[in-house]
Amino acid sequence: MKRMAVVLAAGQGKRMKSKLYKVLHPVCGKPMVGHVVDTVKATGCQRTVVVVGHGAEKVKAYIGQDAEYVLQETQLGTGHAVKQAKDLLGGEQGTTIVICGDTPLVTTETLEGIMALHEEKSAAATILTAVMEQPAGYGRIIRGEDGSVLKIVEQKDCTTEEAAVNEINTGTYCFDNAKLFAALEKVTNTNNQQEYYLTDVIGILRAQGDIVLGYQAHDAAESIGVNDRLALSEAEQLMRQRINRNHMLNGVTFIDPASTYIGADVIIGADTVLYPGVTLKGKTVIGEDCAIGPASEIEDCVIMDGASVKHSVLCQAEVGARTSVGPFAYLRPGASLGEDVKVGDFVEIKNATIGNGSKVSHLSYIGDAEVGTNVNIGCGAITANYDGYNKAKTTIEDDAFIGSNVNLIAPVTVGKGAFVVAGSTITRSVPENDLAVARVRQENKTGYAEKVRARAKAKKEQSGQS
Ligand code: UD1
Ligand code: CA
Predict the structure, then answer these.
(1) Helices 177-184 and 200-207, interaxial angle, to 10°?
(2) For ligand 1, which residues put their CB under 6 angstroms from it?
(3) What CA–CA distance (Å, rounded) separates 277 from 295?
(4) Other CB atoms closer than 10 Å to residue 122's CB: what's the count?
(5) What tens digit of pLDDT does each residue of 146-191 get?
(6) Distance from the CA of 171 to the center of ligand 1, in angstroms?
(7) How far apart are the first and last CA of the chain?
């Protein structure tokens, strides 16, 4: 059976009170509609149509090639929204999932479950339902005396009796594709919101004698529809627990799951330990046996096996195997550390490669540089890479030694095995194995400290200050 999906994502989401279109609000770092499209794809849908409207260009730009799009110019309701897909899907035969872009927690397992039931029973429609303690805001599932689904009634159109029903419509359904588009033609907008409700299709199919089923979600929490920031924070919490749980089951140790924030697309190897206060974002990949945290933020980085990161901020950086970073280091885009490297406290690295076994232990800025293997960069040494207009490159070859408080004024090269004396300001390249000194030679003036003190004392007495 051919499987297709329609994702509803055209609403503005007024109740979010936001400049950002609702379905682009992130849950664990990933826009809600991204979660939904990925879930639908994972269930083997051959075609996924996203209905866009508010923020159409932004939604399309985010999802990209993963879907086909139809535009719903005015938001006349969920039924009207699905109807927009008729040109693309109207001629197909098979099962169509309809799912809202604001239900990010629905899982692949649940979609597989509902599709299996739907196809096995040759139903016209199967609704994913959930029993909720607080059904307010959701459409209610109205069943007949024999327990079969008769219709869905929106909260705003409910009688008191209907409002008391706590089985709700999650907004996810499977339809027989041909029957769905035929029934949509019969939907009207005679209701309290004057919208074309997709939910009315259920009553229409049922009235014409088609099979309509309800499939109850195992976990009602999956069905949260995010309409406001309260629900957004609930969804975030639940998604975070789900993500953390999966990593733990895959062999990652969390010292404090409640204070550990992992993005939906982050990958972490077994036997890695995450200490409290860690945030891992974007496409970050962490290897095995790493120690991450406490208190570190890592975005779009690749961290290899056995590395450690403490109290540090890393963005678009690479950290080699067994390398240690921090405490209090800042790795900016393009920082690439080799294996067994040490980057210590108050070190900032940007657009620079640091070769295997090299050390930048304290208080350094290394920008636009290529540092070889087994290089030692002393405390407070920096690259001066910017003249206010241009960036220039510093090259430090293998086995070089850069003393403390050295300024390397780029462009400049320190040759293999060269030695730069502490306190030097280097403006010319240093040849291999040379020693560079670029500082004023020290002079000691015998007993002069006494004279300076006496002079200062006399000045103070003369001015009468106490
Ligand atoms: C909808 C259901 C309700 C269900 C709930 C589950 C209808 C009429 N009601 O209500 O039974 O309990 O979801 O969360 O379907 N959208 C469009 N175009 C439109 C209107 C909406 O694309 O013209 C999109 C929205 O962007 C959103 C989704 O459809 O992603 C659902 O719309 P929303 O207004 O949130 O519906 P609910 O009131 O939550
Ligand atoms: Ca909703």
Answers:
(1) 100
(2) 8-11, 22-23, 51, 53, 72, 75-78, 80-81, 100-103, 138-139, 152, 154, 168-171, 197-199, 225, 227
(3) 4
(4) 9
(5) 989 999 999 999 999 999 999 999 999 999 999 999 999 999 999 9
(6) 7
(7) 96
**Can you spell out the DSSP letters for 203-218?**
HHHHHTT--EEEEE-S
In the block, residue with structure tokens 């089951």 = 249
Is 3-223's fold the same as 252-436's? Answer: no
Q: State the catalytic residues.
A: 362
Atom of ligand 1 nearest to the CA of 224: 14
Give the integer Cα–Cα distance in Å for 308 and 291.
Answer: 5
pLDDT the model gives residue 464:
82
Strands (DSSP E) found in 282-320: 285-286, 291-292, 296-299, 302-303, 308-309, 313-315, 318-319
Q: Output the residue whose Cα is nearest ligand 1's atom 26.
A: 11
Query: What CATH number was assigned to the domain covering residues 3-223?
Result: 3.90.550.10
Q: How far is the CA of 330 from the centre of ligand 1 (A)?
A: 43
Considering the chain, what is the average pLDDT of its residues?
97
Q: For residue 193, which atom of ligand 1 is closest to its CA?
A: 8
Distance 151 CA to ligand 1 centre (A): 16
Query: How many Å apart are CA 352 and CA 185, to the nearest integer?
Result: 61
DSSP-derived pairing of the beta strands 425-426 and 308-309: unpaired
The pLDDT score that the predictor gives to residue 147 is 87
CA of 99 to the centre of ligand 1 (A): 9
Atom of ligand 1 nearest to the CA of 33: 30
Residue carrying the six token digits 């479950």: 113
35, amino acid identity = H
Tell me the whole-structure pTM to 2 decimals: 0.91
Query: What pLDDT was estimated at residue 466?
Result: 65
Cβ atoms within 10 A of the Cβ of 291, count?
16
Domain boundaries, the chain: 3-223, 252-436
Residue ranges of the chain with pLDDT lower than 50? none
Question: Would you state the structure tokens that stand for residue 259, as one six-digit string?
Answer: 């204070």
CATH 2.160.10.10 at 252-436, yes or no: yes
